[in-house]
Amino acid sequence: MWWLLVILCVEIPLILVGLAIGYYVWFMRQEAAREEKLERKGRIVKAGIVFANHNLYKKNARDNFWPAQVVFTLVDDVPDLDDVLQELAEAIREFETEDEEDEDERIIGQVVRTEYGYGWPLQIPKRITGRLVAYTTSVDIQCKWLPARRLEEPYIYVNAYAGKERKDRLARMVSYPDN
What we know:
Layout: H1 2-41, E1 43-52, E2 65-73, H2 81-93, H3 103-114, E3 122-123, H4 126-129, E4 134-142, E5 155-162, E6 169-174
Antiparallel strand pairs: 1-2, 1-5, 2-4, 3-4, 5-6
């Protein structure tokens, strides 16, 4: 019976620790591959703020980061980009799901209802964007990259990439170009 006690007290915890370490290593490799792809294929674009954690509007320590929902497009030379981003942000704030079969649309509806972000860029439905291809996603806003270490503008900059599949889309905040 002593061997059962050894298994329960020693071996099972070691197996669990091994599984946790294995998962961490796998996750870090996946994240490194995503970051490498973003560096190779991504573009730095302006992203409009849809809604942001209230702490972003206060002065923060350099190491703080808080989530925000943003909208962006990878289309070049959009006339009046700032106005377009503001209009898209307002449309997302008021978003209601119409097509439950469209997974991106359904998830956007959940994000708006709960204000709980979704880290993969979601394509905004054409009924809102017209012919413009645009996305919404949640990003961590790094306070060290905010000019006054707080959100003072209705936009940030992101390095973004958008493949055809949702899991092949990425967006991460970067510093403002003049910062």
